[in-house]
Design brief:
heterodimer, A: 201 residues, mainly alpha, Arp2/3 complex 21 kDa subunit ARPC3, two-stranded antiparallel sheet, 2 strands, B: 205 residues, alpha+beta, 4-stranded antiparallel β-sheet, 5 helices
């Protein structure tokens, strides 16, 4: 899910940077000082978790946890994910530096959508139902990330259907794993610290 | 309750950090080396797993001259026809791609000339100079023992190159902890800036 440099066109990369900048600006504007530690910790968790690969031929896939990021951070997912991906690109060469905007958009837009769709429902539900919403958010965010990446590849004249099928096929197990992890975390937080699930914006 | 949350976050970090070494994610990589005319290579992810399906495009300059399949071991073979820089490019179609160049200097002089406009590396120039400096030995031929030793040496150099390439992708705990440290540092800077802004706002009021 980390696009390297040179795979997408300059136009697609530039447009992604524009969307990424707007998202980061909105995220930073709505961020309250009391929630900065949560943004930092979530970025650190995202940074570590997206480094774990699950071998799955022909390549390998990794956890995303952008659904969880969206539920916890809302629009602040943009700066959190940007920082984590920037460090991965610089330290490990995972994803290109020029493609950083695209990678941020691919993971942050689904995070914001899932946050908008599920965070209020999670807040107003019983723990068991909140965990189910968490699963849905985790799985949907991975699905939407695949669609976003296929759309960027489509903008680069690489077609849409084939990359989308390859991505969705490879990430089907990730949807379940991401959903399960998100469900567990959401259920846990709902039970012990529900105020953490209050959206930042 | 506070203790539960700290425990939970610690578990999440540990699950990530102490996950078995082979599991660090993933970047598609390609490696190739010439053995005479034959160029052999393999595709793998940065966690060491071989990529067992895919097509590797063989390019000279901007021209695609051939396409070879990865076998079940994630390996491919191509026989060079000209003494050119050969770019091998693997595209998995989902946004993962990798490339590797086998320079003309690695290929035998017996191959026909090749495109001289192709960008040569400094190493390539040095090797070319060496090759022109000692044409007599190649023209007169070499003993079988020497040829066998050269072949063995070439295999050892290839193995060393593979190891160096794998080492470049090796991640250790310090890298991961360093990344987390950077994030916490950025969080601190954000705190400092917000505090300063709020202090400035209060003093103006």
């Amino acid at each position: 899910m980390h696009l390297p440099d040179g795979v997408i066109s300059n136009t697609a990369a530039g447009a992604s940077w524009a969307v990424c900048s707007a998202g980061v600006a909105i995220g930073l504007r709505g961020m309250k000082s009391g929630r900065i530690p949560l943004v930092g910790v979530t970025a650190a968790v995202f940074f570590v978790c997206t480094l774990i690969a699950i071998p799955l031929p022909p390549a390998s896939v990794h956890l995303l946890l952008n659904g969880l990021t969206g539920i916890l951070l809302g629009w602040a997912s943009f700066p959190a994910i940007l920082v984590a991906l920037a460090l991965q690109a610089v330290q490990f060469g995972h994803g290109g530096v020029f493609a950083l905007g695209a990678n941020t958009v691919v993971m942050s837009v689904p995070a914001v959508i899932c946050g908008a769709l599920f965070s209020r429902r999670i807040k107003n539900s019983q723990t068991r139902r909140a965990a189910i919403y968490g699963f849905a958010a985790g799985a949907l965010s991975v699905f939407l990330s695949c669609i976003m990446q296929a759309s960027l590849l489509c903008l680069t004249d690489r077609g849409f259907v084939t990359p989308a099928m390859v991505l969705l096929g490879a990430h089907m197990p990730v949807m379940f794993i991401d959903g399960a992890v998100t469900a567990w975390v959401v259920g846990f937080l709902h039970r012990v610290k529900p105020e953490m699930l209050d959206r930042l914006d | 309750m506070q203790r539960n949350i700290i425990l939970f976050l610690a578990c999440l970090f540990c699950a990530g950090i102490f996950f078995p070494g082979r599991a660090w994610a993933h970047k598609v990589k390609l490696f190739a080396a010439a053995d005479g005319k034959k160029i052999e290579g393999f595709a793998y992810t940065s966690d060491g797993a071989r990529i067992k399906r895919g097509k590797v495009a063989v390019m000279i300059g901007d021209n695609k001259i051939a396409e070879v399949d990865l076998d079940k071991k994630g390996e491919f073979t191509y026989e060079a026809k000209t003494k050119d820089d050969h770019l091998f490019r693997l595209d998995l179609g989902d946004g993962h791609a990798a490339s590797f160049t086998v320079y003309a200097s690695e290929l035998p002089d017996s191959l026909p000339g090749g495109d001289k406009t192709v960008q040569a590396t400094p190493d390539a120039n040095e090797n070319a100079a060496e090759a022109t400096a000692a044409p007599a030995s190649t023209a007169t031929g070499i003993s079988q023992d020497l040829a066998a030793e050269i072949k063995q040496l070439r295999q050892q150099v290839t193995m060393l190159r593979e190891e160096i390439d794998a080492y470049r992708e090796h991640r250790n705990l310090q890298d991961i902890i360093g990344g987390i440290g950077y994030i916490l540092g950025i969080t601190g800077i954000a705190f400092m800036l917000m505090k300063r802004n709020s202090t400035n706002g209060n003093s103006k009021a």
